[in-house]
Amino acid sequence: MASIIRHVSVVFFLVSLLHFGSSSSEKELEYEKWISWNKQNYLMKKKIMATETVRGIKVVDVKLRNAEMNKVRVSVSQNGTGDFMTIREALASIHLKNTKRVVLDIGPGVYREKIIVPKTMDFITFLGNASDPPTITWNDTASSINGRDGRPMKTFQSATVAVDASYFLAFNIKFENTAPHKIGSAGEQAVALRISGTKAAFYSCSFYGSQDTLYDHKGLHYFYNCFIQGSVDFIFGYGRSLYENCHLNSLAKKVASLTAQKRNDASMQSGFSFKDSKITGSGHVYLGRAWGDYSRVVFSYTFMDSLVLPQGWSDWGKQSNDERVYYGEYECSGPGANLSGRVSWARILTAQEAKPFIGTYFIDGDTWLTSPLTAANS
Ligand SMILES: *[C@@H]1O[C@H](CO)[C@@H](O)[C@H](O)[C@H]1NC(C)=O
Ligand SMILES: *[C@@H]1O[C@H](CO)[C@@H](O)[C@H](O)[C@H]1NC(C)=O
Ligand SMILES: *[C@@H]1O[C@H](CO)[C@@H](O)[C@H](O)[C@H]1NC(C)=O
Ligand SMILES: *[C@@H]1O[C@H](CO)[C@@H](O)[C@H](O)[C@H]1NC(C)=O
């Protein structure tokens, strides 16, 4: 890991030299700011890493290290052989201010439950079996009535599973919101998963919904080998997230957008990066539309089927955003990746420009991301 970091910093350094003195356009200025932020961030992390060493290994996050060393397992099974029969009951048994890794070993089956992992309940893992992954399903929408105050619950509360805690992990889990979507009707945002905590990772999970399937709300997130399906804006929010080896499948009937990234301020270090992924499905889709004025999305090494519109990106009718958004593509393939019809403000990235987005360093992974095997085994 250390050598990767060193390599990255060298690249950042070189890139910043190349760009020095050429701040003619707002775009370039933006890019330089991003690079210099990355350099500062790297230096800060190096300082933290130098502060503690355990058995010759630099410990970056003491809280995380302690949580993993005190790991416990709880089983959830619908046939009554586990500690609990529902995920809600299992979560209710965990201390609200949790400090150790608690792995919920979830047996196969369809769990019709609406779940919230509260803000202080860090270090929870949902572990399903790859050969028969459990499904967590519900069907609230933004216009569903909230039982507490009798008002519509809005997009935020429509989530089947909402994670407000940090250090959340999930393996082989199917997250689903089954509310149907009709074109042109309002209030049908129906989230399958909302992730609002930071330092969360999802491995081999699937997300099924229609409008607004995956609310990548905020924080640092990693998605690996995941399947994400929806119709409109089905990955949205202002998380800083890396999606690797993921499959985005559109259910759109007409024209829609895959992502609606909400970076709405030039100083926000937020953005979605998709690497080694693929885009398939129905309708005609933009890769992204600017929910935030400084929306940032990058696709690299990704297969794009013909559903991707030649224009590629949408400013959501706000031309002043064209200079502000950061919509990049690098080394993509397939009929949808033809760049000849792209909007003029789409960025065809050079290797140097793509570099900051295409590794787990994009999400500060070296400070919190453990290898999937280590994370799954106790
Ligand atoms: C009950 O389900 C678990 C998985 O949750 C499985 O390992 C176990 O074999 C099942 N037992 C019976 C009796 O079906
Ligand atoms: C997953 O399920 C299969 C089939 O029931 C079983 O053979 C295997 O041991 C399970 N894996 C784990 C990690 O529990
Ligand atoms: C959710 O499903 C339940 C049970 O099938 C149904 O009664 C309810 O109307 C559905 N709610 C929405 C908002 O679709
Ligand atoms: C890309 O699209 C243009 C315009 O439609 C077309 O002329 C060109 O052949 C396409 N290139 C590839 C590699 O398909």
Q: Would you give an account of this structure?
A:
This is Pectinesterase. Residues 74-366 form the Pectinesterase catalytic domain. It comes from Heracleum sosnowskyi. It is found in: Secreted, Cell wall. The structure is a single chain. With 378 residues, this protein is an alpha/beta fold. Helix content is 18%, strand content 30%. It contains seven helices and 27 strands. The strands form three sheets. Strands 5, 6, 8, 9, 11, 12, 14, 15, 17, 18, 20, 22, 24 and 25 form a 14-stranded parallel sheet that branches. Strands 3-4-7-10-13-16-19-21-23-26-27 form an eleven-stranded parallel sheet. The protein has a two-stranded antiparallel ribbon with strand order 1-2. It is globular. The two termini are 22 Å apart. The structure holds 2-acetamido-2-deoxy-beta-D-glucopyranose (4 copies). Residues 338, 340 line the site of one 2-acetamido-2-deoxy-beta-D-glucopyranose.
Major beta sheet, specifics?
14 strands, parallel
Could you give the count of β-strands? 27
Report strand %. Answer: 25-35%
Contiguous uncertain segments of 5+ residues: 1-23
Bound molecules: 2-acetamido-2-deoxy-beta-D-glucopyranose
Tally the helices: 7
Distance between the termini: 22 Å
Which structural class do you get from the secondary structure elements? Answer: alpha/beta
Output mean pLDDT: 87
The Rg value, from CA coordinates, equals: 21 Å
Estimate the helix proportion, in percent.
10-25%
Gross morphology: globular
Catalytic activity: [(1->4)-alpha-D-galacturonosyl methyl ester](n) + n H2O = [(1->4)-alpha-D-galacturonosyl](n) + n methanol + n H(+)
Subcellular location: Secreted, Cell wall
Pathway: Glycan metabolism; pectin degradation; 2-dehydro-3-deoxy-D-gluconate from pectin: step 1/5
Active site: 233
